[in-house]
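Fold it.
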Amino acid sequence: MTPRSIIVALSAVGLLVAGCTPAEEPPEVPDEVGTDEGASAREGLDDPTEQDTEGQDEDERWDDDPLVVGDGDPEVLAALEQIAGQVAELRDLEVRSPIHLDVVSSEELVEIARELNEEAIDDERLARRDDRQRALETLHLLPVGIDLDEAGEAMIEVGVLGLFAPLTERAYAVADDGELSPAVSSTVAHELLHALQHQHFGLDRLTDIDEPDERFALASVVEGDAVLIEEAWIEENLDEEQQEERTLQFARLGAAAQETFDELPDYLLIKQLQPYSLGERFVSRLLEEGGQEALNAAIADPPRTSAEVRDPQLYLDGFTPTDPPPLTAPEGDWHELHSSRFGAWQVDVYSATMPRGHPPIGQYWRGGQMESWIDDEGRVIAAFSVTFDGDAATTFCERLPTWYEHHTEADVANDGTWSTGQDVAVLDCDDQNVRLAIAPDRTLAESIVGDG
């Protein structure tokens, strides 16, 4: 498999659909999940490709207008025009209006991404991002004090070859020498597909979804679609020599980016990469079940959880998550800091980053919630509660102490608790549920998980 594109979310907001060549994939999260055959996609949806084009005359639409516009060299624009037509035919989606695509340098793309995210983020979203970051830091899933803006820009600077911005409806491709190499051309195909998705389904929804797990799920459908079209475009339009050249280009870019990606937290890398690998498999399953109509329906009415992306059968069966056992708010001068779903993909971060790596269990996720609180002194408590099917709860419960011992050098006791010297964790498990609380002291942590 060639290096993948990733979806870049600077500061975890203002999502940009982007193409990237990561130097080194994060720890592998295997995709194998047993699913039943024979189910059909959700019914009762209008065909989203039949949206109104707001007064455009069908006979006059784009017979003489270009498919792609931009500020580049005419020969480059002609090549982009050809790729756009090929992508539209592969995906069976018409180009409803000319797509603006600019060929830029990697430095220019970093600045473009920075400006787009500054425009997209407001004070409320910034505060929500910061609160979520504090909760993830307390759970030791992110290092304390990490600058998410810098991390996002680092990803773009060393590993991104293309980007589509729903906010401005513009696509960008990186070609520092101005040439459309095989690597750049295939990235263009990927980003042009995002532009078509936006024209037909509206990708600005990515920035409107507040629930991170739900945003992950939609991004997975969007990216899985684009990955498959990119791969189909490569097979149809690059000869064997060009495909080999493309692979070498990605390998060189990956080697150059390795040091930067080694310094980024696994949590962020997995968050960015998983929508591509899981999304490709999810979309492939939909196409097997119901073709393009099923895929279009899934973009219009996407899965709401990452568990459905991990196990497409859940989506096909109309899955609704269950409420996990509650977490008890601490007494005294504690105030809610952050609350959001703790999704299947987050469960699998633990599995993927175990000392030797372990198979994923996110496909057995049936519900999860993360809560955090802060006191007047700035101390933070963070906790999650997750419900599983099968024996996955037992598996997850067994993995957590080992993970924290390895990643935080915690002193793990035999009673389901451990301490880093600065905080204490209390783990509570039964056959279906896992609850973990990390607090400044044991009494507080125990009060959060309570009796279930």
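The chain has two domains: 10-34+65-300, 334-449.
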